[in-house]
Amino acid sequence: MAKGRTTMKDIAQALGVTPSTVSLAMKDDPRISLETKQRVMSMARTMNFRLNPHMANLNQKTHTIGISIYGFDFANHPFIGGMIGGIQAEAGKHGFSVMLCNNNTERIGNSNKSFFVNLAEEGRIDGLIIHRGHAEDIRKVTNLGIPVVLLNTHHESLPDIPVVHVDFEHAIYAATEHLIESLGHGRIGFIGSSLYDQVGRKGLEGYKTALEKYGLPYDESKIRFAEYDDPEQEYKMAYDLLSSEDRPTAVVTIDDYFAMYTINAAYDLGLSVPEELSVTGVYDFPTSAMLSKPLTTIRIPLDELGMKAFHLLNQQLQGTEIPQKQYWIRGDLITRKTTRFVKS
């Protein structure tokens, strides 16, 4: 028996079903069998479940899903735009509207409550796709029986929630391998997001794996980390790396913006790209092909990322159990003008 206030998740665990099945049963959804509905309602009475009066709308379908984005200006950032495009395209096919919110800035009064938690508690969404977010806020939503899918987010405390990731380990491995095998580079640097960030850790693993495969030493002096959304720090890390005495002949970066700041730092140091320095990125943002030296990068199908997230959410909305919880979207190498064969 659950301690404290009983949640839909508690009922689901007691019955061996998903929280979304409990939620659908309480909404008298026709997709849920009469037997299951009766079991849910019986267990709810046994566990003294009481629906919060402020959550009465949870018993009504909204045909709306929420997309919660953390830390980006989602009107302009190409990662967010591509991902949302994939979600919207699939949601529209299934009769759903989409509601966007930025959970890094939108809070409710002085309560420090995430905006997406408020949407869920007010019954304004049927499901939620979250790009980053605090684990405790995410759990508040699933405890309401509202299905959630995470994007590029990993919480050890949320192993039951499906996650769709960009496969940064594979992306950085592919870029590093190309520089070694096809272009002959032996001194390759890596600039990633914070080592405390899953993206940075996975990228570093891919970099190390490629070096090991080709018998090249791992040298920590050629590694730098910077925070996402901090262009000044990203530029400084690149400048610092390229100013070193034994500077690399190529740099693999965690995304296209990191690559652009690395190219800027190279130019400020009087280095020519790609004649004296090769640079790669990840994502293939629209601007990446429009630079004076179009960027070699790993193209990530961002619309596929969004479509996969919606499909996983829709499965839960249908009451379907999702046994696999981790999904990885891989990209393809796009060679352009910022890489070349290393000078002997």
TrEMBL record:
<dbReference type="GO" id="GO:0003700">
    <property type="term" value="F:DNA-binding transcription factor activity"/>
</dbReference>
<feature type="domain" description="HTH lacI-type">
    <location>
        <begin position="6"/>
        <end position="60"/>
    </location>
</feature>
<keyword id="KW-0804">Transcription</keyword>
<dbReference type="InterPro" id="IPR028082">
    <property type="entry name" value="Peripla_BP_I"/>
</dbReference>
<protein>
    <submittedName>
        <fullName>LacI family DNA-binding transcriptional regulator</fullName>
    </submittedName>
</protein>
<dbReference type="InterPro" id="IPR000843">
    <property type="entry name" value="HTH_LacI"/>
</dbReference>
<keyword id="KW-0805">Transcription regulation</keyword>
<dbReference type="InterPro" id="IPR010982">
    <property type="entry name" value="Lambda_DNA-bd_dom_sf"/>
</dbReference>
<dbReference type="InterPro" id="IPR046335">
    <property type="entry name" value="LacI/GalR-like_sensor"/>
</dbReference>
<dbReference type="Pfam" id="PF13377">
    <property type="entry name" value="Peripla_BP_3"/>
</dbReference>
<dbReference type="GO" id="GO:0000976">
    <property type="term" value="F:transcription cis-regulatory region binding"/>
</dbReference>
<dbReference type="Pfam" id="PF00356">
    <property type="entry name" value="LacI"/>
</dbReference>
<keyword id="KW-0238">DNA-binding</keyword>
